[in-house]
Amino acid sequence: MPGFDYDLFVIGAGSGGVRASRIAAAHGARVAVAEEYRVGGTCVIRGCVPKKMLVYGAHFAEDLEDARRFGWDVGEPKFDWATLRDNVLADVDRLNCAYTDTLNNNKVEIILERATIAGPNAVRLASGQTVTAGKILIATGAWPIIPDVLGAEHGITSNEVFHLEELPRRVVIAGGGYIANEFAGILHQFGSHVTIVNRSDTILRGYDEQIRDRLLQISMTKGIEFRFNAPFEKIVKQEDGSLRIFLKGCEPIEADALLFATGRRPHTEGLGLENAGVAVNEKGAIVVGADNRTSCDSIYAVGDVTDRIQLTPVAIREGQAFADSVFGGTPRQVDYSCIPSAVFSHPPIAGVGMTEGEAREKIGEIAVYQSDFRPMKNVLAGRNERSLYKMICNAETGVVVGLHMIGPDAPEILQAAAIAVKAKLTKQAFDDTVALHPSMAEELVLMR
Length: 448
Fold this sequence. Notes:
Strand content: 15-25%
Low-confidence stretches: none
Number of strands: 22
Structural class: alpha/beta
Number of domains: 3
Distance between the termini: 60 Å
CATH topology of the largest domain: FAD/NAD(P)-binding domain
Mean pLDDT: 96
Shape: globular
CATH class of the largest domain: Alpha Beta
């Protein structure tokens, strides 16, 4: 694109931005990407990856306890938060370097400073320089929401939780979504007393009702407390540094830390979108079409900043589709149907397709199959915790329209099963498949 400094300028070096930059450069475009913090974005730096490492660390609490039933003398286990924290952050550093190397190897110019929109083909850098580009891609992701409540400054978000100097003895987690339930499981296993406070009466809205009810039951059995229909009134920091948290309709809660996990909003504030007439919706999300183009023909957006589906693999696919379409001569659009998702709670949840409620509303006549069982490991360990797998089918055709599960390794099992749902296979296809015994996954072909 002659006359411009770059063919493509990407704002944000997260999952979507990095993929779009790399693929566009591979197609021969002159590409620059600006990142105000670190290359890798939310997923790599302060999201999915470090969170999953903490999940792994948390599982050792019960695994070491169970080991005795399997004949192992493990002594008296002792957990050191600083060791895990520092090892996780060191691996984040490694990944930051790896993503940086990927961009460098693909001849993408990395600009480590904030960039904002100055016009349809212009970007202003924090240093004061303005550069031009034939196309601009916004991939700035989303940012944690902090409720507008007195004393909110005393809380932290998922951005800061990875850097805690020490683990809180008592922690309140605000929210009922996946971030709240994941960190509830993590911190509980590390020894913190956890209370989840939710302004509604439902956790994990959007997941199958039976599955989320099972998680609630298991979480309460483990000792995690819940306060429902309890909006915040104020947070007071006391002389000893602890917090006194006032809730509507509940007794105040004493805590050493408050973690806000009340959702994430598109990171568009102060981005200069008005300088190019880029439209946003009521939530501040950039409005795009199926080809990721905004209301300004030269500006595109991918990932969480569009608030379509806030999942890393979706952002990556959107970035790839954008680069292939605009610079590769191969028009592509992302298929948003049948996207699997997981909650790395304790135990984890995974699902794909319609929930039972959605299927009854959209299809009408459905058939529901399930397996409610106690995993073999739990039997020998003396744990009563049960897993639940559900399959929802179109009663007329037998096609599987939804698959949902809670139990050990549920996300690992669902990934393969999601292919069957995407391919519109029938319950009979599952029935005709020989079980892999003994495994938890075999319950997928044994459901009645």
